[in-house]
Every structure is written in C-alpha cells, then in structure tokens.
Amino acid sequence: MPTADEVLVGPWPPTAAEVVSVARAGATVRLTDDALKAVLAGRRRVDALAAAETPAYGVSTGFGALATRHIAPELRARLQKSLIRSHAAGAGPEVEREVVRALMLLRLRTLASGHTGVRVETAQALAALLNAGITPVVHEYGSLGCSGDLAPLSHVALALMGEGSVRDAAGTLTTADSALLAAGIRPIDLAAKEGLALINGTDGMLGMLLLACHDLDALLRTADLTASMSVEALLGTDRVFAADLQRLRPHPGQAAAAANMRALLADSSIIASHRGPDCTRVQDAYSLRCAPQVAGAARDTLSHAVTVAERELASVIDNPVVLDDGRVESNGHFHGAPVGYVLDFLAIAVADVASISERRTDRMLDVARSHGLPAFLADDPGVDSGHMIAQYTQAAVVSELKRLAAPASVDSIPSSAMQEDHVSMGWSAARKLRRAVDGLTTVLAVELLTASRALELRAPLRPAPATAAAVAVVRERVAGPGPDRYLAPEIAAAAELVADGTVLSAVEAVAPLS
C-alpha cells in the first residue's frame, strides 16, 4: 500500500493533489506493475517498427522539418542522443524546482501509459531521479508550447543521459553525471524513439496550471475574506449578499462567494451598528457591493480551468503515439492550445480580483470615503503617512497584473522551417500566470493588513468572529495601529500568512468557507 508520502504511477492519470504533493512536498513515486507491463508491451511494438523497412517518424527518420531523412539502423542511437542535446537549448533564469518536479512526474505518467514505446529502464530512471530529489536545471525560455515543452523536457532527458546541470536534493548545483553516481542511478543510453518520447509533451505548462489552480482555490477564498473585512471597515451592508437576492443571478461561483461573505460577516457588531433607520446610505460602492460577482466569476473561470486540467491529466501526449492495436501514428496532441487558453483566462481573472481589492484598500485610506476613519489610517495624519504607500505598492502590482493579463496564446510564431507553423505559447502563458498568482497574493496581503487596522480603529465596535480571527492572526506577526513603522516587513509577513494558508485556516476554524 502507498504511504502518504508516496504516489503510485500507473497507466491511469494522477490526481491534481498528487502532482502538488510530488512537486512541492517531495513525495516519492512508484511505478505500478500495470505500468511496467504497459511500458513493456509498448516497447515491443516500437522494436518491431524499428526492424521494419517502412519509415516511421521519430524511429527511423529525422525530426520536424528533417522528417524526410531516413536514418540507418546504426545511426538511430546517435539520432536520439543528438535530439536531446540539440533540443536542450533553454536560456534565461532557472525554473523553480516545483515546476520541474511537476513536469517530470507528468512525463513519467505518460511513459507509464505504454503508449510512448520507451523501455522499462528508462521509465524507472525518471522515477529514480524524482525519488533522489535530483532536479535538472530547466530554463525560462525555450518552449513554444507546441511539439510540447521541447526545451524544458530536453533538459530533463539530458540529465537522464548523465549530461548537463542539475540541483541535488540539498539544492546544490552540480553536474548530472556526479549527481546520478552519488544517487546510484545509471545514466540511460537512449534507444529508438526514446528521446522523442521523453520530450514531446505539454507537461511543463500543465504542471504550472495545476499548481496555479491549487493556489487560486485558496486565494479566492482569501479574497472573500479580505472583501468582507473591508465591507465591515467601511460600514458597508451585508444585505446585498443575501441568498434569495443572489439566486436571481445563478452563477455558481457568485453564489459561493456571497455565501462565504455572509458567513464571514455573521454576528458583526460593526455591521449591526448601522442597520437601523438612522443610516442614510442607500447603497455601497461597486468594489464592496459587487465583490461576489467579481470573485464569483473568477471562481467559475477556475472551475473551467480545472476541468481542462483534468482532461489533460487523462491524456497521453506524444508524437508519434503507440496505439493498442500496434499502430504507431503521428498526431497533434502535443499542441498546447487547450492548456494555453485557460492559463491566459486565469490571468485575466487574477488581474480583476486584484483590481477590485486595490479599490477597496484605497477607499479605506481616503478620509472623504472611509466614513470616519483617519486619513490613510495614520496615527497622526500629516506627521504619519499610515498605509499611504502600501496602496502605492498594491497599485503597482495591479498595474503589472493587467500587463500579465495580455494573452500569450494568440502570439503564435512559426518555427522549424515552417513545419511547425502554428504554436500555442502555452509555456509562456504559464510563466506569466505564476507571476500573476504571486502578485495577487501581495495585493490581498495589503488589503488584509489595511482592513485589520481599520477594523481595530472601529473599536469599541467589534468585528464578526470570523474576521476577528483574521485580525488576531495578523497581530501575531504585525503590531496594531500606531506611529509609522518600517512597513515592508509587515507587508511581507501578511503575504506569507496569505500564501501559506495560515490566515485562511484560522478563519475557517470559525466559519468554514466554500
């Protein structure tokens, strides 16, 4: 039986949670007996094809625009090595360890399907690399998201050959041959088709999509929290979040966001303090009143992205692919359009959730719109600037997120002498989404920090139990209202509380969210 720290890799797709576990938590992997049988059967078909006189793409021919060149049997091992060496052509900064581990697991899963034709020992070597904590150095640039993530996966395949650079389990930069030797892993001498099978997949962009979906699931609940805190702090109403009102527009994400806000604001003495006939305000600003509509639309976008990710997880991405009846057929499954589109779609949603958060923060700081709060929440406005420049930082991030929302997937550029004349740019879409997720984390952290101070300045009125729990967690790391202090570490501390789920866990212990 697998342990909590082990993921079984079979001919079936892994779950998103298993991918995150291997990528981030260092879970080990184990190929199942079914996987080994499937790999062996697929290899027999490729061996038979390699012995045949009929040319087969990637087995007895060149690649891409060079596919018309027939490769003699004595040159085919060199063909596979040359493919990997030439395609390991990435440039720019190193890609994060979690991304590389995710793409390694996803490529291993495709190998385990038996539809790629690799040998058992090649699949086992990739599993061993993961289990030893060895992470090949993969670079920011090199993938066009069509013919798969060629350059990133080639750097992984290069390490399996005992070439190139890697990070060992301790994170130390070293050579692949020395790392494999230390781990007791024998370098792979690639056989027919294996080089192609190791690199022709959407694994990098899919891995980043799965990690982003995991993070956004928590960030969107956090956005409901910070919005609720701002509604309280700005003496807004919770009546607009009522279930019967929300049912008039039955988007599921909106319903979930509104339900969360009702739970978060339940039993708030601040909200109760201005419910009576003396309150002359007819309705709140859009950034408060429309919070469920915006966060809800983002939730529905995320739901669509998860559906696409699950389909891609269930896919076998290789070219050519080994079919159950023994045929080996060329195809276009490696085209990253399905993944690239939703990566871009999520970046749009992230930018808008951040934008409305920044508008709420600015409202709390403006004495003309904050309904009695001191200017910029400063201790002594004029002498102190309070959170004035925290909002500048927030605004700068939001502006960057708008730029990151420009789609990469419409920017096809031809390659390989026009053989590969339309590409997805899905890898690029994934890279910018990762930056966008980090940006949203910072924006929500500033709103959390600002709203916490504003709620305390409403004393002796008390916030709701759930939002009070968020303030209490923030106060464990950041001091309360007072004269100006060095603010950057406080923003960083709040961002950490958001990113690691600490604040969300404390709140959900009081009011479970959906």
Q: What report would you give on this structure?
A:
By secondary structure, the protein is mostly helical. The protein has 2 domains: 6-201, Fumarase C, Chain B, domain 1 (Orthogonal Bundle); 208-411 and 429-508, Fumarase C, Chain A, domain 2. It contains 20 helices and 9 strands. The longest helix has 31 residues, at 203-233. It starts with 5 loop residues before the first strand and ends in a 6-residue tail after the last helix. The model has no long low-confidence stretch (mean pLDDT 93).
Radius of gyration: 26 Å
The number of distinct helices, counting runs of at least 4 residues, comes to: 20
The ordered string of helix (H) and strand (E) elements is: EHEHHEHHEEHEEHHHHHHHHEEHHHHHH
Give helix % range. 40-55%
List the helices and strands and how they pair.
Blueprint: E1 6-9, H1 16-25, E2 28-31, H2 33-51, H3 76-87, E3 91-94, H4 97-112, H5 120-131, E4 135-136, E5 139-141, H6 150-160, E6 165-167, E7 173-175, H7 176-183, H8 194-199, H9 203-233, H10 243-246, H11 252-265, H12 269-272, H13 286-289, H14 291-313, E8 321-322, E9 328-329, H15 337-365, H16 388-404, H17 426-456, H18 465-475, H19 488-499, H20 502-508
Parallel strand pairs: 1-2
Antiparallel strand pairs: 3-5, 4-6, 6-7, 8-9
Helix pairs in contact: 1-4, 1-9, 3-6, 4-5, 4-9, 9-11, 9-14, 9-15, 9-17, 11-14, 14-15, 15-16, 15-17, 16-17, 17-18, 17-19, 18-20
